[in-house]
Amino acid sequence: MAVVLPLGLGSSTVMAELVDRFTVGTGDQTASLQFDFLDGRTWVFDIEWTGTLTGRDAFDVLAADTTGRFSFDFDVITYSFGDFLVGVTIDDATDFGTGTPPDYLDTWHYWTANAAADPWDQSFIGFNDRVLADGARDGWVFGTSATPATIPAPATLTVLGMALTGACRRRRGG
Prior knowledge:
Layout: E1 3-7, E2 14-25, E3 29-36, E4 41-49, H1 55-63, E5 72-79, E6 82-90, E7 93-96, E8 108-113, E9 121-122, E10 137-142, H2 154-168
């Protein structure tokens, strides 16, 4: 189910399309990974695990998923200090870039939040070094330095859908 989400107010509203949300893995801890593509589509993955998991390890969990619900692939350049994410493909969406001068925006920008209610912070460590905590969120945005799209909780979508359905009904009678 695709949901189009307004991101902003007024006539300059930016739209993001939540393509889907998946739960992957098993365990007693959960963290979310969000990918915002340049074309405005967003995917969210809730990764479940037990033990220790880094942001980089979470990519391997997604790539190893064999349920057939989605396809996930990624490209990194490996340096002595860690991996640099240059490409992500989810189903038919793909963005690849290495940060071309002068604006360096054609790359995946990494954002983190330690809890679901925390605001996004631009990460100053690589995803190899980020140890995920239960409830953490990692966001990846391609082609812009904007924070990840705001994705409402499922209950919010239900209330929004009910409100829109009610607003679309015509009143009959006198």
